[in-house]
Amino acid sequence: MPGLRSGAYALNLEGDGSGPPPDAYFPAVWVVTMTTLRTGTWRWAFFAAVFPVAVAGCGESFQATAGAGGGGAGATGGSTTSSSTTASGGTGGVGGTATGGTGGAPTDCTNGETQPCYTGPANTAEVGECKKGTQTCKDNEWGLCEDEVLPAADVCDGLDNDCDGLKDEDCPCRNGEVQDCFEGPGMPGVGICKKGLSACENGVWQPCEGFVGAKDETCNDIDDDCDGETDDVQGVGSMCTLADALGVCKTGKKQCNSDKGLLECFPAVEPSQEICDDLDNDCNGTPDDLAFEVCTATVQVGGQPVTCQGAFICNNQNVEMCAPLGAIFQDDFSNAQSGKWTFGSEWQVGPAKLSNAPPTLGNPDPVEDHTITMDNGIAGVAIGGSPVSTGPSYLTSKEIDATAYTTLFLSYWRWLNTTSNLTRPHTVEVTKDSGLTWVMIWTNGQDVFDNQWKLMVHDLNQFKGEKIQIRFGFAQLTSNGTISGWNIDDVHVASCPPPGTSSINQ
């Protein structure tokens, strides 16, 4: 300490820690201890026996009582000499036998006293999870700080563990947060695919819950695989054939039947207007049968053009052309039970047959029908023989609807043998009032002896646009010899004369 001389110690009896006078002197036997107080001042303690002190210049002696410390050897009395007196110091006292103490220690606290404490950074106390602790006084000293909570690393638990005023600032998420999530496959918002929710627990996003991912596509009218297409299962769109369809409509494509959950063959081509392309576009079973559209056809009759009602058809070069309308009534007599006719006496339908006996007049009945077929069917009077009834007797057609026709012709093939109509009249007649009145359009004005099939064509334009019936008749006014009579085949009622017509019979 500054101001003290070697071998001597300053003593301030006032105990305020200030230094001694510069000329003060104390023997080295003085023992001095110093203790630092909380206030920063010095305290002095002295340990010695009672000793005399000679003060220079005074020649007086005195005794001092040592402080309560352990006794060392007694100090030897000193001597001093002045100008008038010589004095000798007394003999020092014997030191005490007790062991010296530690000196008078400062008092920090009172035993049992407590105070708050905190050993962490000052700005973190009572922030977040950080808490002050408690110190307890024991043996007049403060003990350790107990139960304090100091800053720690954030552990993503929703708490401010590092006591910086922020919770889980370095964590991916905070407890209680939720976010949309999707773990696939597929794309959320497309088809069945949709997002779910993920919750934050202890700073970690938990597995996605409630999401719907893509599945294998099935036939259920739903986009299972989330590709934006419904029921696009494997095989959809591949070509197939519809067993029950006709024409181009047999072509199909495989599609899902969501009602059945199956992949089935559906029509790929819809019926369309027929065109000349060798295909059945309207799927009715007949290629190139153009929709009915009236046109004016021209046919040659005996080298002369005759116009009649026609319709467009396709020729063999797939070119559309106007042709005579098809027959509205026809019969090749291949079926005796067709229901197209009613039969008078001796009229019949059956196979052509040569007359049993040669007739006395004309030629016998034919052996074959006009259209040579297996049925060999014709209509006639007493086929293979001669009529015996006097008549008249008729072969009468059912009603024929010609209301859509603007031209009308009757054609048939005949094998007829008869005498003039004065003796055996044979007729062709038409009615348009269900048989109330009949109009004769042909009769034999003279003898007819056919020995081959002959085409007959009659103009029925006076009956166009009507519902009509046709009948073939015969009668025998006299009985002068046998004769074969009517044989008829391939009857047609149509808008135009048939091809090969040489004339219109009157």
Which properties best describe this structure?
six-stranded antiparallel beta sheet, 0% helix, mainly beta, rod-shaped, Jelly Rolls, 506 residues, disordered N terminus
Report on the structure:
This protein is an all-beta fold. Among the domains are: 1-106, no CATH class; 329-494, Galactose-binding domain-like (Jelly Rolls). It is 0% helix and 29% strand. It contains no helices and 32 strands. The protein has strands spanning 31-34, 44-47, 51-52, 63-64, 79-81, 86-88, 114-117, 133-138, 141-142, 178-181, 196-201, 204-205, 239-241, 251-257, 262-267, 294-301, 304-314, 320-324, 329-331, 341-343, 347-351, 377-381, 393-397, 400-401, 409-414, 417-418, 426-431, 439-443, 448-449, 454-459, 467-474, 487-494. Strands 19, 21, 22, 25, 30 and 32 form a 6-stranded antiparallel sheet that branches. Strands 20, 23, 24, 27, 28 and 31 form a 6-stranded antiparallel sheet that branches. A hairpin with a 4-residue loop joins β5 (79-81) and β6. The radius of gyration is 73 Å and the shape is rod-shaped. The model is unreliable at 1-105 (pLDDT under 50).
